[in-house]
Amino acid sequence: MKVLKGIEVSIAAADAAKLARVEVIAAYPITPQTHIVEHLAELVANGELDASYINVESEHSAMSACCGSSAAGARTFTSTSSQGMELMHEILFIASAMRLPIVMAAVNRALSAPLSIWGDHGDVMASRDTGWIMLFCENGQEVVDSTILAFRIAEDRRVLLPVMVNLDGFSLSHVIEPIDFPTQKEVDEFLPAYDPLYTLHPDKPVTMGAYGMPEIYTEAKYAQETALVNSKVVIKEVLAEYGKKFGRNYNIVESYNTENADVVFVALGAIGENIKTAIDTLKEQGKEAGLVSLRLFRPFPVDEVASALGNKKRVVVIERVMPAGAPNGPLFQELSAVALARGFKGELTNYIVGLGGRDVLPQDFEAVFEEISSGNPAIPHDGKNFRVIGVRA
Amino acid sequence: MRLKSLQLYTEDPAEEFAVSGHRACQGCAEILALRLALKVFGKDTILCMATGCMEIISTPLPTTAWTLPWIHVAFENAASVASGVEAGIKILMDKGKIAKKDIHVVAIAGDGGTSDIGLQALSGALERGHKFTYICVDNEAYMNTGIQRSSSTPYGAMTTTSPPGKKSIGQATWKKNMPEIVAAHNVPYVATACPSYPFDLFAKVKKAKMVQGPSYLHVLSVCPTGWRIPSNQAIEYGKLAVRTGMFPLYEIEDGICRVTYSPEPLRPVTEYLKGQGRYRHLTEESTSLIQERITSEWEQLKYRCTVK
Ligand SMILES: Cc1ncc(C[n+]2csc(CCOP(=O)(O)OP(=O)(O)O)c2C)c(N)n1
Ligand code: SF4
After folding, report:
1. pLDDT by residue (tens digit) across A275-317?
2. Is the Cβ pair A65, B60 closer than 8 Å?
3. Regarding predicted confidence, which is higher, B267 or A377?
4. Is the pLDDT assigned to residue A245 strictly greater than 70?
5. A60: which chain B residues are within 8 Å (Cβ-Cβ)?
6. What would the mean pLDDT of B95-118 be, rounded to a whole number?
7. In the prediction, which pLDDT does B308 show?
8. What is the pLDDT of residues A185-214, one digit of tens each?
9. Probe ligand 1: pick from B122, B144, B147, B222, max atoms within 8 Å of CB?
């Protein structure tokens, strides 16, 4: 029988990086990601993890050093949150365009101002078009599994792209959960040593990060985009293989109780678990709601989302980020685009929740369900196209 | 180049690591400095370069002017990229994944990429003690973006963002003392150099390469384009910079400072300033201000160093 280990999810994420046998870690502390980098530092200090730990002076340098070590051929890991991710922002684009298979745990946190250390998706949504593969996790087990399989995806010769494993700050990173850890032997079988295509080495000199004239930039970007979009096939393969080996089957888009539900929530990350609780309560009352949870956000799983929504009448998009002057939140906009492209006819509604760590309870989603079912959800608050749960006047 | 003498410093003096076909301006001393320095670093070298003239002139896809492994990531991070490269190859060697070999990592950036936007990354990498050499190729402005001032632009110089005018003398601040900032990190080796003095440059590169930790070379790299001088005058102006005391050649080895070439008696700075379009607007008054400052800085340096 499997023995589950009760452990804080941050520590588990670091342990997963250890199981992946990372070779270089370049990281800078920021709440709520701190426990990950602290635990990795401890593992290296105690000789439990044979890796080089670079105590960089900023996140900009963390991502830069990661580019350097990954280009040198070392399996590379880092972690950040919020302002740290924004300070990395410039280099995030370069890491992906240079096809460096770095893995980063992104512990999602609100952006300043006002300064907030608590969770929301402001950081990752500001970085969503950096060319990284983006996975989202609902719970600690997913964090551990995703961290390990992220390297398999990133390093696959058909992919060679960095992967961001997103987990919600505090509401996921700091909770203690029972986790089933694979053994080192199992991970080694699943994740062979990184075998880079090109490296910086004097025996075979290559030029990396050259500049592109207008004659070549479009083609370079097109090739990168193709690689990113095509990575979906590999991601599915890797998830399937992971499921076979470890018994935990993940899909890039997960549906929960959607068969008979007309009202379907769509969400990213740990909030999905609260929504599921609401769905269960509603079900006891004979009401059917469902959830479509995106494990993969980049590349956006257009077809999978379209088929998960099928012919649902009402789709409620839940997001943890303020739209910033856009007509809707980013996830809603992506879903609208999917609806347009794939002919989805249902009604889409947008709710903004849980900003800067604000609690969102299952009851809130029950209330959203009632509001939507009562048929007046199309009326936005204050002339906006979205509603904000719990905002005080 | 006297190849025989160069033999002292290199394995193969004829070997080139910055090869022809790059697009540097005629008479560019920055590419010359790198070409010479790389001969000494030799083939077991990895280059990490910042955005700037040297990157732009050398790597328009799909071509490259570097026969060494070379990486460019961004403008402000040559030092942190080098940190990662150094850590990466070291751990791979420790784990036996690549063969053990003495590979030297060299970070290269302009004065902007060093003394302004890249200062934090450089400071971090120096403090962490990575084994690498950082070369600042100092042409005294942001040349790649079209001659804007940097904190390394000398007092009085005209750039497009420090233009002289009714209310401006041009650059209104004095050149930031980068070598001293680096020396304050207590790194084992810091030196200034100029390709107009190639053998002094070779000797310093050789020392920098031997250091078991960070080393720093601040190389004055005359830019005919930005300095508004004829392209055949780059070597001459490098010499004048040294001979007037505008750019003294010295090194700081384990904290001990040594002037490596004493140009005494110093030539008047006017010899250096005149003829450069960037100083054309200077009045006699501002020229003597520069003279005073340069003389006193030279005296300070001598006081600190043993002159040899
Ligand atoms: C973050 C960022 N800001 C600005 C630039 C634009 N930029 C590219 S090179 C450069 C100046 C380079 O000057 P310097 O480092 O002195 O090198 P040089 O070109 O003079 O050799 C600037 C401002 C950039 N690439 N990145
Ligand atoms: S602008 Fe100056 S530094 Fe840049 S390539 Fe031309 S001469 Fe060299």
Report:
1. 999 999 999 999 999 999 999 999 999 999 999 999 999 999 9
2. no
3. B267
4. yes
5. 76-77, 80, 120-121
6. 98
7. 52
8. 999 999 999 999 999 999 999 999 999 999
9. B144
Q: CB of A88 within 8 Å of any CB in chain B?
A: no
pLDDT confidence tier of residue B6, bands split at 50, 70 and 90: confident
A211 CA to chain B: closest CA distance, Å? 5
Considering only CB atoms, which chain A residues are within 8 Å of B97? 73, 193
Q: Which of residues 2-41 of A touch B (CB under 8 A)?
A: 23-24, 26
pTM of the predicted protein model: 0.97
CA closest to B83 among chain A residues: A65
Q: Which residues touch B75 (CB under 8 Å, ≥6 apart)? A: B50, B51, B52, B112, B113, B117, B118
CA distance A65 to B155: 35
What does the alpha-carbon distance between residue A201 and residue B69 come to, in Å, rounded to a whole number?
Answer: 6
Quick: pLDDT tens for A209-231.
999 999 999 999 999 999 999 99
CA B185 vs. chain centroid, Å, equals 18
Q: What is the pLDDT of residue A223?
A: 98
Contacts of A73 in chain B (CB under 8 A): 88-89, 92, 97-98
